[in-house]
């Protein structure tokens, strides 16, 4: 079982979208018994809050199932528990490192670094552009799943 943790700043927009988009891809590829997914924040700002309504509306529009997510902050224990810690942007990586202190096992990566066009996922909390966030996350999630399938022993 591979364990993946998607991480963004607030854990109410991008990382929950990534979790549910990735779960959808996993389901479509019959990999539910092989890959486990969760999401977390670097900030404590939104802890306990649900997925932001515009992010939920975008998932609903795209036919992606989601359940009652509650935002939580990443902990040092998450570094031990998860095999991959997948950030949305460079700034998330420095913030993750402030909390988990090290990346000795090279687990922390940016989602679009698995794509042909490495870049940050712009924060739709600030841009208001949930369509771009959705498309960029789908691109990253698809590329990351391809990487996992190729690297499977
Ligand atoms: P996210 O967006 O990191 O994609 O969940 C944000 C949501 C809330 C805040 C920042 C970013 N906030 O500061 O409350």
How would you describe the overall organization of this protein?
This protein is an alpha/beta fold and 153 residues long. It is built from six helices and four strands, in the order E-H-E-H-H-E-H-E-H-H. It has helices at 14-28, 53-61, 76-81, 90-100, 124-127, 130-150, and strands spanning 2-8, 35-41, 84-87, 108-110. A four-stranded parallel beta sheet has the order 2-1-3-4. It is globular. It starts with a strand and ends with a helix. The structure holds 4-nitrophenyl phosphate (4NP). Residues 8-14, 45-46, 123, 125 line the site of 4-nitrophenyl phosphate.
Helix residue percentage: 40-55%
Shape: globular
> N-to-C SSE series?
EHEHHEHEHH
- What hetero molecules are bound to the protein chains? 4-nitrophenyl phosphate
Largest sheet: 4 strands, parallel
Strand order of the largest sheet: 2-1-3-4
End-to-end gap: 12 Å
Low-confidence stretches: none
Question: Using DSSP, what is the number of strands?
Answer: 4
Write the layout of secondary structure elements.
Layout: E1 2-8, H1 14-28, E2 35-41, H2 53-61, H3 76-81, E3 84-87, H4 90-100, E4 108-110, H5 124-127, H6 130-150
Parallel strand pairs: 1-2, 1-3, 3-4
The protein binds 4-nitrophenyl phosphate.
4-nitrophenyl phosphate is lined by residues 8-14, 45-46, 123, 125.
